[in-house]
Amino acid sequence: MFHYFLIIAISFKIYPRGNRMVSVTLNVNGATFHVDVNAYDTLAKVLRDHLGFTDVKTGCENGECGSCTVLMDGKAIVSCLMLAVKADGKEIVTARGLAKDGKLHVLQKEFIEHDAIQCGYCTPGMLMSAKALLDSTPHPTEEEIRSSISGNICRCTGYQQIVEAIAAAAEKE
């Protein structure tokens, strides 16, 4: 929670409230978008409200739940704490961007196979945290899997199915 207030405090000092618009270029899921945003808009808000990427969920909006997790230049970040202006020119991948040529990514398939999706609200963030893990550690241990998703809150599954799905995906990648 402290991080949220720190980011907001910094953003107001650097980018005062008002109608100060900033043009940013976001590369999302392989497509380039030029968008004018308020200087204090978060990346999550811009992805959802300006660009229509509703797979980026906003839960707590203070970096605690992980539902807004995306990959930025290959690293998992919580997009509710990232100012959109800081993402200018960066490569962003959302859960929607995992599928290629109409085919689900192995992680998406395994989440379905292992019933790791219940209400589905945490799923996009979980997928992105798992993707970052498998990109850096192709054959993770259960402890590494649990650590990688520790910033993502799920109220439905109890996490076991999610851990099993990620482990199964690691075996198939």
Condensed summary:
With about 170 residues, the protein is α+β, with helices and mostly antiparallel strands.
Decide which structural class fits the backbone: alpha+beta
Main sheet overview: 5 strands, mixed
**Level-1 CATH class name of the largest domain:** Alpha Beta
N-to-C SSE series?
HEEHEEEHHHH
Portion in strands: 15-25%
What is the correct CATH architecture of the largest domain? Roll
Proportion of helical residues: 25-40%
How confident overall, as mean pLDDT?
Answer: 91
What is the name of the CATH topology of the largest domain? Answer: Ubiquitin-like (UB roll)
Number of domains: 2
Form type: globular
Compute the CA-based radius of gyration: 16 Å
Weakly predicted, low-confidence segments = none
What's the arrangement of strands in the largest beta sheet? 2-1-5-3-4
Count every beta strand, where a strand is a DSSP E run of 2 or more residues. 5
CATH superfamily of the largest domain: Beta-grasp domain
What is the overall number of helices? Answer: 6
Q: What is the terminal separation in angstroms?
A: 36 Å
Would you give an account of this structure?
It is built from six helices and five strands, in the order αββαβββαααα. With 173 residues, it is α+β, with helices and mostly antiparallel strands. The chain has two domains: 2-97, Beta-grasp domain (Ubiquitin-like (UB roll)); 99-172, DNA polymerase, domain 1 (Orthogonal Bundle), CATH 1.10.150. It has a five-stranded mixed sheet with strand order 2-1-5-3-4, with helices on both faces. Helix 3 (106-113) packs across helix 6 (160-172). The longest helix has 14 residues, at 123-136.
